[in-house]
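Hello again, I could really use a second opinion on something today. I've dropped the whole record in just underneath, so have a look.
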Amino acid sequence: MTVVQYQAAAGADLVEVWLQVADDGGTDRADEYISRLQAICELLASQPGMGVDRPDIAQGIQSFPVDRYVIYYEQHDLVVSVLRVWHTAQDPKSLSVIE
């Protein structure tokens, strides 16, 4: 079974997303939204090919859009590594996905 691992930058991104959603709609909505993003990451672990290959960022990187955000990830054997969770307004070419 493939597992999800969140890189430090992705964890920080999720905190930022939570803060933005909480500011707009309250903490309950923020909790629900983060749970939804994490559920989608679990889905990507079971079906990593759902994303789009992103060789423009780095070899092996894939992305998957969720509302106003994009999950950037890569698969290594039985691990899907979530690298970043960025707003769609942010330029993906400026992502620091390899740490």
About this structure: The chain has a mean pLDDT of 90. DSSP finds two helices and five strands in the chain. The chain has one domain: 3-94.
